[in-house]
Predict the 3D structure of the following.
Amino acid sequence: MRAEGRAIALPCHFGEWLQGRIGPQGPVALVTLRPEGWGMTGRRLPGPLTACRFGAGQGRIAAPVLARFLRDLGLPATGRYLLRPRFAPGLGTGMSTAALIAVARLAGFRGSAEALARACLAAEGASDPLMFASPDRMLWASRQARVLAPLPAVPRAHLLAGFWGPALPTRANDDDYPDISDLLPAWAAAPGLAGCAAIARESARRCLARRGPADDPTEALARDLGALGWAMSHSGAARALIFAPGGIPEHGADVLHSAGLRGICRLRTGTI
């Protein structure tokens, strides 16, 4: 994360390694999948506060929401925020949270990640943990904006990624997710890339079985291309086939395109 004068670049995420309820009545929790590189860039211009639009379609923070968000952080409710997202909003890549974090940083916020998380939660009803330095090393309660447990570092992986399905904003009151509490001990034991990929695949399978869409082609694509596993946005369109570094087949992008995925790209993630 860096800030240079009035310009900033921030990370995003690309769906989740796993997401679901912690017990049948427990909170919705996730382990975010964070790709390397920037996810949101922006700058601030002086003047009266205006609504913040970014990307296309879903990308908008209304002026009253923006004013309350800035006041919650003890910042002046002024300025014009010009943001550019790496991915279109509403696809499960954390653009709404990244936009709020960008606004806060551009307005001069230097407080704790926990305080910023609470303000993001108040503004959007659910939050990704992108305000933390290592967001993929925690079990995150997205509807409560709190860390449930620390987790080990994620192994390095190369991702063949794209989008399947329409853009859909996350609904804060949506808690219709499968129980994943049985998957957490294996993840916390740092099972290596193959183990992480298998856990991600199981979490995605459970989500699709409960929430759909029934015609999602990602499982078959992962099998046909020899991926270790695959991950998804459990409430959006982002899909990622997981490979060991250097393992993505040269023809992989063409296969995904033929299956109907769009926005196909290669990403990297992990730190060990």
Observations:
- DSSP finds seven helices and 14 strands in the chain.
